Known about the structure:
The chain is built from seven helices and six strands. The protein has helices at 13-25, 41-46, 64-74, 92-97, 118-121, 124-134, 158-186; strands spanning 2-7, 30-35, 49-55, 106-114, 138-139, 144-148.
Amino acid sequence: MKALVIYESMFGNTRAIAEAVRDGLATHATVDLANVNQLDMEDAGHADLMVVGGPTHVHGMTRARTREEAVTWTTDPSKHLTLEPDAPGRGIRDWSDDPMTVVAPMFAAFATRADVPILLSGNAAAQIDRALRHRGSRRVAESENFLVTKENRLQDDELDRARAWGESLAVQASRLLTTVDRGADEG
Ligand SMILES: Cc1cc2nc3c(=O)[nH]c(=O)nc-3n(C[C@H](O)[C@H](O)[C@H](O)COP(=O)(O)O)c2cc1C
């Protein structure tokens, strides 16, 4: 099975989660990892499973103006935040809205967000999930949220949780692929 992890990240937390998900997936699948601004259409076309994630900004997926706001945070020395080199450009919302976007037959969505009740934080993961379902991809697992502190650092254990989640996605997607293949053979 081929998996592709696609992420967006301003300060590096979502990238770190995406890398841990990639490592988990790699226990059962061939995996590529790509920032949404560095995506190779050909890789996307060959994936059986896409795992797509981004940061939560203003209760949902990022927009150009929230990404600009994030850039200004990195210029405030008291915040100790560094801008990701691949951050400038588009976000997951722009990618999923783009008619040229190729989606894999299966997907799972994730987001990073503040460690507050989800009614207050918003749920970008659910928005990504909805966008990919609307594009005709099949969800292999419920969307997942990974938490950052109010200083924008990943909470302890989130990388371990992301790795375990990635592994569980690979198992689930492989199972679905086998079922589909068997159905095709029998049909
Ligand atoms: C402009 C802006 C708006 C944000 N709005 C929210 C929000 O509504 N809910 C939330 O949980 N986190 C919010 N955050 C915190 C981000 O979710 C957090 O910075 C992000 O998960 C870090 O991921 P990254 O390091 O990959 O950019 C916001 C951050 C920025 C910069």
